Amino acid sequence: MKGRNMTRWRDPAKDPRQEPKSNLITAEGAARMRGILDHLSRVKRPAISAKVGEAAALGDRSENADYTYNKKELHRVIARIRYLTTRLDELQIIDRLPADTERVFFGAFVTLEDDNGEEMRLRIVGHDETDTSKHWISVDAPLAKALLGKGLDDEATVAAPGGEKTWLITEIEYQTPTV
To answer: How many angstroms separate the CA atoms of 95 and 65, rounded?
Structure first.
């Protein structure tokens, strides 16, 4: 039986999407999430609710595209508010530096050098605050797992699509939490 909702069966024990994500977040990331939640709750939801009310007052809702669009948008915003509220309740906020700042732990800025001498600077953050443009990777990522607990001048080897890649840790830095 084929259909648009049919997917390939995956063994839950081997499916990487089923791996539990860590519930860690930096203080800055938690403040950012609270700001988004506040904006959605106090600004965006009331504005969209008003638009839905105005569109509903126009009459026939079956052919009212404005009503249909805004109603869908309202449901999307409500779902996002519900998700953020639940997620913020289960997160563990890391608002202090580790005891040993000479090793790589959560929240560290790490500078790596590969075999070709090219450098890369990244930060290990929680799943909810990953950002590829800033080179912030999840603590659950294979590279982050390989780096955790390592010190300066240690090597970390990670399995990559093109084969194993080895990185040398050249700098470890921490930022004092501001929030």
So the answer is: 47
Structure tokens at 165: 């890649």
Residues 48-65 have pLDDT tens digits of 999 999 888 887 777 778
How does DSSP classify residue 22?
Answer: P
Q: List, in sequence order, every residue forming a beta bridge with 163; answer none if it has no partner.
A: 160
pTM: 0.78
Closest CA to 73 of 38, 39, 47: 47
Which secondary structure element, helix H or strand E, spans residue 119, and what is its range?
strand 119-125
Give 8-17 contacts, CB < 8 A, sequence gap 24+: none
Strands 92-94 and 24-26: parallel
Query: What is the C-alpha separation between 102 and 173, in angstroms, rounded?
Result: 8
CA distances, 80 to each of 18, 62, 73, 74, 106 (Å): 22, 26, 11, 10, 26
